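Subgroup meeting minutes
Present: P.N., E.W., G.H.
Scribe: E.W.

1. P.N. recapped why we're keeping a running log of single-chain structure predictions: easier to compare across weeks, and new members can see raw inputs and outputs side by side.
2. G.H. added today's entry (144 aa).
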Amino acid sequence: TSDTIHCLSRGVSESLSSAITTSFVNTCASYNDYEDMQNCWFYGPHAYGHDAIGGDMSDINSSPNDPLFFLHHGFVDRNWRNWQLADPGNRTYAIGGYTTQNCGNSCQPTTLSYQLASLGFDPAVTIQQVMDTLNPYLCYKYDY
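Output recorded in log:
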C-alpha cells in the first residue's frame, strides 16, 4: 500500500489499456465546455491510464512513485493544451471546479487568482500563471 515501504508494483490491464483509443481522446477534445471536457478526461483517458498500469499507478497516494506517472501526465497535459489551442480565446483560461474536495456547503469555486501550494519548494504562483504554457512562468510548447 502507499503508506508502507515497498517495491514498485504494477498490474497491467490490457482491457483498460486498449480502451484508451484515439477516438476516446478525440471525444474528450470535442467538448467546448471546460467542465465537460475535464470530466471526460479525468474519468476517461486519465483514469484509464492510471488503472490500466495498475499497482502503484492506481493508488492516488503512491502513483507519483511510478516513473510512468510523469509520462502519463505529460500525455494528459499535451492533450489539454491541444484542447486549449483549438479555441485559445475562449479556452486558454477556462476553469471550473472547487478549491477543496468534499467541502460540502463551504465549497469555494476555483478562480484564476487561486494560489497553488508548493510547500515552500517554489515561489507562490496562481492558477492564471500556469494556464498558458507559453507564459514566462512555464515557457514551454509542444511540437506537433
